[in-house]
């Protein structure tokens, strides 16, 4: 894009990229790729250097070579001949020193970072690192204020919230002991006890047993111990819980009727009820944590980081796993289409 095309940006053009004259001057500047390099520096991290004389024969690593002058202050760093840490840092430093835009400010839209991969590939760990970076950048100017108020920084609050979300949002699978299926952070003692009770009730749901009535296609409770524990933890009546599972009421037209359930149907109902309670509890935890991280500052845009469930194949795959694998496959196709096919 030359000066003619940059006219549409008006006075801002000079802050986006170099002019044709500056780029032509850079292209004609003497440059020897074998002599120009970056050298680590304890203060500046990296500095530009040139080999001025020859001495004893030594073996050096050349992966930190300098880019030709035509790439100085380039706006698209993917065009660099050598794309490494010192080249990226130096290019951003040069643009910053020249009052040129050194970060992406084009669209001013909400951004989302989607981290995908097979189960156990490290998506959750990378998600932590991304969130930790954003939290560190966002709170860098308010650390002293937070310390003065005996309140943890934003980074500390998010990191402390993560174990709670991981404990309730992850599960053990064949390939990953801590697979994403979706402490002391912001919860009162009463709220913690309520979470423990609901978690215990969900576990006891799995201990409920049912049997088939003789000569009838109707299930009945095979003991009430599991139902009694669930009812105690959730504040329900044990008899009403068993009746609702074995003889649910359904609306037919304008009337309510009681229908019978087989053992298999009751087990499906118990599983669905457990999932529904767990989902409501988990979403409540997310809302509660978000409330604790709430800020009064005005917000216009957001950066979302999504850690989705990974691709897995089991001996027996449920509908949920089909949806997970299908979503991962479609996302991979989307990535391939936009990163490779459309760029050709």
Strand and helix map with partners:
Elements: H1 3-6, H2 20-27, E1 36-41, E2 45-50, H3 85-97, E3 111-115, H4 123-139, H5 143-148, H6 154-169, E4 170-171, E5 179-180, H7 189-205, E6 210-212, E7 219-221, H8 225-234, H9 238-246, E8 249-252, E9 255-258, H10 263-292, E10 303-307, H11 319-341
Parallel strand pairs: 3-10
Antiparallel strand pairs: 1-2, 4-5, 6-7, 8-9
3D architecture notes:
With 344 residues, the chain is an alpha+beta fold. The chain folds into 3 domains: 3-97, no CATH class; 111-186 and 293-340, no CATH class; 193-283, Four Helix Bundle (Hemerythrin (Met), subunit A) (Up-down Bundle). Helices cover 44% and strands 12% of the residues. The strands form 5 sheets. Strands 1-2 form a two-stranded antiparallel sheet. The chain has a two-stranded parallel ribbon with strand order 3-10. Strand 6 and strand 7 form a beta hairpin. Helix 7 (189-205) packs antiparallel against helix 10 (263-292). The longest helix has 30 residues, at 263-292. The protein is elongated.
Helix content: 40-55%
Unreliable residue runs: none
Q: Please summarize the sheet with the most strands.
A: 2 strands, antiparallel
How many whole angstroms does the radius of gyration measure? 30 Å
Total domains, how many?
3
Strand arrangement, major sheet: 1-2
The secondary-structure element order is HHEEHEHHHEEHEEHHEEHEH
Assign the structural class, choosing from mainly alpha, mainly beta, alpha/beta, alpha+beta, or little secondary structure.
alpha+beta
pLDDT averaged over residues: 79
Beta-strand share of residues: 5-15%
Oligomer: single chain
Instruction: Report the count of strand segments.
Output: 10
Q: Span between N and C termini?
A: 19 Å
| Backbone shape | elongated
Number of H/I helices: 11
